[in-house]
Protein: D-2-hydroxyacid dehydrogenase family protein
Organism: Mycolicibacterium hodleri
Amino acid sequence: MADWTPVTTRADVTAFSDHAADDDELVARLEPFDVVFVMRERTPLPRNVLERLTRLRMIASTGPGNASIDMAAAEELGIHVSGTGGSVSSTVELTWALILASARHLVAESRSIAEGGWQTTVGLELDRKVLGVLGLGRIGTRIARIGAAFGMDVVAWSQNLTPDAAAEAGARYLPREEFFATADVLTVHLKLSERSRGLIGAAELAAMKPTALLVNTSRGPIVDEAALIAALESGAIAGAGVDVFDTEPLPAGHPLRTMANVTATPHIGYVADRAYGIFFRDGVAAISEWLDGNGRG
């Protein structure tokens, strides 16, 4: 994905492809390194981990921001943190992949073919249905425009959204209660914050149509996971397309792994060739620049 020569000619590089979930295991793994290059939130680096990595002097992270790094602790410990550019297109595209897969039961129908069967479900036609976009930022605005191209009635709501701002993005503003009750497909595009954490809970899910679909490619904790599972089990909503979870990787045996009305993917919204090309190009450049400044030429 990138030319690593500016780094490999001056430093030994070790790559890990498995997840270290235990803090002690993670610290033992990272103790020998001056620089750690992490993929988004795949490897959280809280204060209690950073304080034990006494050799660590730089963290390079993919993406423009990484909420799983304790930035205050890094600054106090003299650890430089860098980010990279990125691309929102991959997340926009995966969102629509999950919407379409959920609406047309693509996983179940593909599995039926693989097992020697034929049609087993009736899909949901999106034309003239209501697309509810929760958050009209860079991603949500593009989701709204694509929804309109599918012939959907696009509505939107978020805490700070105004009717004029919604109209500029090609959507129709609805008050909170009406928004959840109206959407046939509700897709989440907010940043995770204390205000958005748990924003979609049992009450919001109960207000949705029993035929509605929920899609989340933003961050897991925006949706109350236990409430979502309960709503899917009871039929309060028809199904969900989920790329993000409270705990990642999703634990073995977790209900969202096996529920028939869930299409789940392993947080791959940003996992695409162009985004990765930007991530690794910028990451190599940031590490090389740090090496230059620290006498490693």
